[in-house]
Design the sequence.
């Protein structure tokens, strides 16, 4: 087993990227160009849902590996998700209607309009289903992440990627328990029934180490890192021991958003601690007047996983894709907990319970405390490796 240089990676090749994690550019080329399988005759449809970006992150990870092995695939989603994948020469179909939510001005879920939108949006589900059926004439495998109306397609081997295993909430958490019985449990039982009947396969992921057995439940799928920590930090002009805080989400309080309270807190910390560097992912032009040498505002960052991997702390709202990458790269999390978005609230509760980070209470104090704590040690989930390797093994072992 190859052991990577500790100052670069701090874990072995088996921990995160299997045999894909590299030290030098030469090894990088040799290993990443190694095909997934010898026979590459089967064709794949990758179908991330049209809500959020975590689903597209996982599809991006799978697409990159398939492309390395010259496996023919098509991405079926909407324009926004396909643009997010940002891969050259991508074969795609942007006609998926999928599912979409409605959000309040503060970014939290607006429940009642979302329910109405899902009801009326379901009228387009037969059209999505028909489009996939037509694709089944040419493509052999559907990787679905996660469109509830495309979980079983006649004539195609369907693999559904999910992360909805129930979490134990307190009896006072009425809303969370309601969400669990309304959403999580039906998805889990539906997948179990379809798998039992041989109608589809399920790749279930979770961030709870005692739940992940690597046979029925797997670690999260995360994107391969394409740059070393030292390379990213060099590009950002950071010293070896200077903390990097990556901000990818904002608090849900409307008053905070109106007054940009969070940005002013980062400005205060940056002024008082010149060695701490903030990189805030925010829409172009927002709060540029607050910028200084160690407080930068960026728009969309391609290959954001490289920046997460190089960070000392990630501040975000708790989408499963982002927290998965931070956990698997061994970076602590500071999360803003949603009130109405039950899935993100559940993610935040799990992150805090399992020691991957904490839910923000006092922003300034939380940032400084998480940076002052001892270096983030390798967690049990990280030791199990990238779920991407498990997924590709399942994808190919039944084909050849």
Sequence:
């Amino acid at each position: 087993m190859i052991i990577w240089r500790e100052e670069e990676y701090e874990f072995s090749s088996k921990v995160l990227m299997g045999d894909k994690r590299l030290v030098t550019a030469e090894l990088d080329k040799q290993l990443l160009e190694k095909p997934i399988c010898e026979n590459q005759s089967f064709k794949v449809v990758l179908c991330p849902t049209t809500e959020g970006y975590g689903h597209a992150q996982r599809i991006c990870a799978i697409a990159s590996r398939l492309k390395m092995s010259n496996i023919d695939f098509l991405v079926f989603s909407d324009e926004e998700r396909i643009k997010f994948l940002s891969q050259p020469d991508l074969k795609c179909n942007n006609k998926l209607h999928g599912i979409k939510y409605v959000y309040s001005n503060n970014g939290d879920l607006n429940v009642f309009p979302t329910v109405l939108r899902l009801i009326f949006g379901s009228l387009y589900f037969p059209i999505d289903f028909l489009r996939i059926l037509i694709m089944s004439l040419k493509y052999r495998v559907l990787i679905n992440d996660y469109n509830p109306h495309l979980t079983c397609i006649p004539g195609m081997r369907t693999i559904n990627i999910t992360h909805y295993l129930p979490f134990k909430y307190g009896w006072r958490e009425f809303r969370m328990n309601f969400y669990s019985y309304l959403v999580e449990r039906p998805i889990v039982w539906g997948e179990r029934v379809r798998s039992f009947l041989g109608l589809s396969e399920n790749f279930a992921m979770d961030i709870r180490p005692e739940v992940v057995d690597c046979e029925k439940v797997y670690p999260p799928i995360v994107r391969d890192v394409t740059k070393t920590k030292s390379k990213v930090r060099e590009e950002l002009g950071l010293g070896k021991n200077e903390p990097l805080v990556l901000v990818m989400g904002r608090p849900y309080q409307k008053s905070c958003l109106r007054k940009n309270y969070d940005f002013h807190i980062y400005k205060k910390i940056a002024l008082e601690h010149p060695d701490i560097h903030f990189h805030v992912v925010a829409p172009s032009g927002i709060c540029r007047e607050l910028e200084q040498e160690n407080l930068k505002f960026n728009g969309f960052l391609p290959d954001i996983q490289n920046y997460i991997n190089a960070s000392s702390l990630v501040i975000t709202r708790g989408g499963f894709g982002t927290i998965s990458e931070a956990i698997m790269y061994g970076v602590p999390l500071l999360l803003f907990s949603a009130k109405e978005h039950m899935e993100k609230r559940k993610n935040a509760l799990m992150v805090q319970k399992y020691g991957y980070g904490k839910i923000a209470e006092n922003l300034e104090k939380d940032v400084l405390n998480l940076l002052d704590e001892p270096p983030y040690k390798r967690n049990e989930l990280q030791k199990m490796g990238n779920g991407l390797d498990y997924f590709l093994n399942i994808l190919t072992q039944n084909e050849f």
Observations:
- The mean pLDDT is 83.
- The domain at 18-221+383-397 is CATH 3.40.50 (Rossmann fold).
